[in-house]
DNA sequence: ATTATAAATTTGTGATCACAAATCAGGGGT
DNA sequence: ACCCCTGATTTGTGATCACAAATTTATAAT
């Protein structure tokens, strides 16, 4: 095989425009940058990104398959507006699947991965001091996925990413309501790390469910969201 | 709003070419019509379907996001060739997620849904008499998803479909090795139905795991699959 | 004034084309 | 005989265009 195209550096798949657009939209969705129910138009986004319609269309399709977006019968794409029942469904499914992931991770933890988790907790608590919820949310995500990666399951990870994307639009709301508090956002994380270091899958799962559950409680206690908005099937 | 475009009939989303291609490929994958590792080429498929490259590209992208296909670094698309570890991962994940679905279904069963499941079992056992594994696999799928639908979870269903798509290419192998047997393929189904009619989630889950586990055992005991083929990450 | 009809605009789908990267094949050098 | 380089072919990505369906806006009739 020729080495000419690869000058010693490990050649990862080349970056396509589609991927760039996809990542941008995905990040925006993950951090709650779009409103539930908001419609996304191809032409609009294409101009914003300075590309043609094609890569945007592909990115929207991909996010739709990942359940981060939904296609209405009229073929327009929007951010799903979840009903209370749908959110409850999402909560229980996240309990089950992420609980499974952390259970598996509990038997796979290494010293290095425990140290890394510790570092992530410290970093997030420092960020929380500054009340920068934007950055904190990203660190929260890093912490959780560092654990899920330790499950060693390549089947579970994309599923969990999809679940996070579905919750994304409601996450901003949760974190805004939350960080007015006493900055105890990493407490459950400390519990999780503690349980993981002991290899206690049950306790780890319990702390994780408390962590997830708190976010859902914050969102679902906001009555203003359920009166109007038509829920998704 | 104008009624002119909709003459009284409930207007379901119009059929696009992309959807037609997608469904065809999906069915083919579900029933094991493609070999693990097989490469799929856009131009080739486009000619076979009598369309341009565009809808085929979209369909392949969609299936890739659903993990039914994978994109190599060279941007070519192929059916994933799973390593033994990956198949084990898939098995455990299916246990957990489909087990969760049937557990939830156990508390939601109605008389009608029980009758329908009974009908599906009868139909499949009749088909098994004729040793038509093609048709039997489809009825097996119908039975399982009839249960999963009773879980009432719109979050779980697409996840389970993705898991089935990932196992699809290996399913043909399993069913071929299986139906040479004594046609006891519906026995676990009868157990499941029985447990569901009693509302016994634990027993239903056990029977389901036995059912899924048997298919995996058949596939994974075939040593000829693991020596060669490069597994997926 | 309200509602239904019709024209106009918007928006997504699918085809065709241009381009770039990857794969494959053949030839020349060691 | 083997390996590396180079050119030809294949294949996917992205842009542009034509078309059809849906939405919106304007107009007219009750």
Q: How would you summarize the topology of this molecule?
A:
Two copies of one chain form a homodimer.
Chain A: H1 17-30, E1 39-40, H2 42-49, H3 53-65, E2 70-71, E3 77-78, H4 84-106, H5 111-129, H6 133-150, H7 156-178, H8 187-198, H9 201-220
Antiparallel strand pairs in A: 1-3, 2-3
Helix pairs in contact in A: 1-3, 2-3, 4-6, 4-7, 4-9, 5-6, 5-8, 6-7, 7-9, 8-9
The structure holds a DNA duplex (30 and 30 nucleotides).
Describe this structure in words.
Two copies of one chain form a homodimer. Chain A is globular, with a radius of gyration of 19 Å. In chain A, strand 2 (70-71) and strand 3 form a beta hairpin. Chain A has 233 residues and is mainly alpha-helical. Chain A starts with 16 loop residues before the first helix and ends in a 13-residue tail after the last helix. Chain A is built from nine helices and three strands. Helices cover 64% and strands 3% of the residues of chain A. The structure holds a DNA duplex (30 and 30 nucleotides).
């Amino acid at each position: 095989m020729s080495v000419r195209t690869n000058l010693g550096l490990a050649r990862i798949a080349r970056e396509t425009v589609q991927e760039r657009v996809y990542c941008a939209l995905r990040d925006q969705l993950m951090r709650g940058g779009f409103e539930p129910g908001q419609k996304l138009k191809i032409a609009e986004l294409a101009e914003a990104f300075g590309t043609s319609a094609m890569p945007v269309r592909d990115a929207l399709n991909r996010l739709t398959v990942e359940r981060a977006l939904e296609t209405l019968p009229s073929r327009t794409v929007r951010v799903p507006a979840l009903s209370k029942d749908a959110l409850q469904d999402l909560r229980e499914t996240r309990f089950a699947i992420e609980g499974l992931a952390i259970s598996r991770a509990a038997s796979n933890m290494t010293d290095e991965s425990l140290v890394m988790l510790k570092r992530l907790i410290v970093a997030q608590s420092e960020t929380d001091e500054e009340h920068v919820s934007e950055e904190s949310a990203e660190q929260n995500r890093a912490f959780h996925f560092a654990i899920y990666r330790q499950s060693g399951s390549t089947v579970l990870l994309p599923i969990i990413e999809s679940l996070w994307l579905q919750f994304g639009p409601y996450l901003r709301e949760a974190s805004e309501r939350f960080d007015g508090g006493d900055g105890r956002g990493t407490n459950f994380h400390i519990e999780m790390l503690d349980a993981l270091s002991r290899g206690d899958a049950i306790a780890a799962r319990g702390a994780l469910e408390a962590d997830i559950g708190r976010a859902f409680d914050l969102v679902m206690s906001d009555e203003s969201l359920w009166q109007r908005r038509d829920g998704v099937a």
